[in-house]
Design a protein that fits this description.
Blueprint: E1 13-20, E2 32-38, E3 43-50, H1 53-66, E4 70-75
Antiparallel strand pairs: 1-3, 1-4, 2-3
């Protein structure tokens, strides 16, 4: 039986963020070993490890300050955040 991963406030976790439009890859230093892709819907998809929940909220604030619409944020529960 597979156990679901438990999110904590102070542990790294894998996330995927989707932003409207094509955003340059230079700003995504917030995510360790992240990947940036552009999909067929002209969206930027960033996938990587966020160090903790405070960093996640900081990242979301940064995206807000960029003025880029956020399409979705997804916790990747099938990935290891360590």
């Amino acid at each position: 039986m597979e156990t679901k991963p438990t999110l904590t406030l102070d542990q790294p976790a894998p996330y995927r963020l989707c932003l409207q439009g094509r955003v340059s890859a230079g700003w995504h230093d917030w995510l360790k070993d992240s990947t940036v892709e552009h999909n067929e819907d002209d969206q930027t998809v960033v996938t990587g490890i966020v160090r903790d929940q405070a960093a996640l909220f900081g990242l979301l604030s940064f995206v807000r300050d960029l003025g880029v619409p956020l399409v979705f944020v997804e916790f990747l529960e099938n990935s290891k955040g360590e």
